[in-house]
UniProtKB/TrEMBL annotation:
CDD domains: init_cond_enzymes (cd00827). This is 3-Oxoacyl-(Acyl-carrier-protein (ACP)) synthase III domain-containing protein. Transmembrane segments: none annotated. Keywords: Acyltransferase, Transferase. The lineage of its organism: Bacteria, Pseudomonadati, Bacteroidota, Cytophagia, Cytophagales.
Length: 379
């Protein structure tokens, strides 16, 4: 089995950063009313700015596939070009189309050569699942390199016009015309962007990141759906898919909006995260004291203190100085967030040979968790 190294990292964030005060200038006002959730959500999530792939007039500047292609093009240098790519593996939770897959749309924009293509769907873990496919391909010597990506373009799902029909319908039904919190609060959480890694079977450059192992865990067998889109959650916890609703119901109930059961989120996200992380490091016989950098993807700074306490309670404490996050500067980019964190750390000049980096990515859709251990190596 070959060793696998991340030899190049790249990101693409569209347009200019958008401050908290500017958000509704871009997203619009639902039913011409300022959001009641915005102030509370922004205070808790700690996000100061984010990026959107459209302008103030609502005109699209990039699709998800275009964001991803831009990030991939940042990997090219004198040693690796578009014709050298052997495998393309992409993950996202916000594809531009139901069919074709996100990955083949990206490949179409690259216009490079015939390559193997893999697409990972899901939520935040989709980016890590795309990475694992590339990792296993290079490790098993099926390919000598792989380009892996994580990306999101969720902002267009958050525009006010996507919810106005629902609120107008509520008003006609003589109900309170207010967008439900499970939909409204996510409008102020999510951001657009893409990250990309080049995986190779040999290190190069001043520093590379060796992937020592990757592990994934799902708790869908015991916990019901928490975060969802294209469906509605019923009283018994099951989800009713969009295909079983009428087109008018798609509008009246905002079926395609991203929603989250916040009670379930608070109940399980930290507990299962700490439990699964401890399982991963125990399996590979590494203690938390050996970790130099801990990169946890969190949707909100609201969870940071609780995650730290939960990890300590499960025997996997992570000292505060080891934590590395950039949520405040780039927002929650879902499947792309871990790529953006690695890119920023890699470019920071802080890394030295021998450093160990633990990546931790949860997703609340049905409570899944993915981990990877990286070691910094010289050329």
């Amino acid at each position: 089995m070959a060793e696998v190294f991340i030899t190049r990292v790249s990101k693409f964030l569209p347009n200019s950063p958008i401050s908290n005060d500017e958000m509704e200038e871009y997203l619009g006002l639902v039913h011409n009313s300022a959001s009641r959730a915005k102030r509370i959500v922004l205070r808790n999530n700690g996000i100061k700015q984010r990026y959107y792939a459209f302008d103030k007039e609502g005109n699209s500047t990039h699709t998800n596939a275009q964001l991803t292609a831009e990030a991939i093009e940042g990997l090219y240098d004198e040693h690796f070009g578009p014709q050298d790519m052997e495998l393309l593996s992409c993950g996202t939770s916000s594809p531009d189309t139901l069919m074709p897959s996100h990955a083949v749309l990206v490949h179409g924009f690259l216009k490079n050569r015939n390559v193997e293509v893999n697409c990972a769907s899901g939520n935040c873990c989709a980016g890590m699942n795309a990475l694992k496919f590339g990792y296993l391909s290079v490790k098993s010597e099926q390919t000598k390199n792989a380009v892996c990506t994580g990306s999101e373009r969720t902002s267009s799902w958050m525009l006010a016009d996507k919810f106005n029909v629902e609120v107008e319908h509520l008003e006609k039904m003589e109900a309170t015309p207010i967008l439900a919190f499970k939909k409204d609060f996510l409008r102020f959480m999510l951001s657009d962007g893409a990250g990309a890694f080049l995986l190779e079977d040999k290190p190069r450059g001043t520093l590379s990141l060796r992937i020592d192992w990757m592990e994934g865990y799902s708790y869908a067998h015991e916990i019901e759906t928490c975060m969802y889109a294209g469906c509605e959650k019923e009283e018994n916890g099951e989800v009713k898919p969009w295909s079983l609703y009428t087109p008018q119901e798609w509008l009246n109930e905002s079926i395609f909006a991203i929603k989250q059961d916040t009670k379930l989120l608070d109940q399980y996200i930290l507990e299962k995260g700490a439990e699964s992380l401890k399982m991963a490091i125990d399996k590979h016989d590494i203690s938390s004291e050996e970790i130099d950098y801990f990169l946890p993807h969190v949707s909100s700074h609201y969870f940071v203190e609780g995650l730290g306490k939960s990890l300590e309670a499960h025997g996997a404490p992570m000292a505060p100085e080891k934590w590395f996050m950039n949520l405040a500067q780039v927002g929650n980019v879902g499947a792309g967030s871990i790529y953006l964190m690695v890119e920023e750390l890699f470019a920071s000049g802080k890394l030295k040979e021998g450093d160990k980096i633990l990546l931790s990515v949860p997703e609340s859709a049905r409570f899944s968790y993915t981990y990877a251990l990286l070691t910094v190596v010289g050329a």
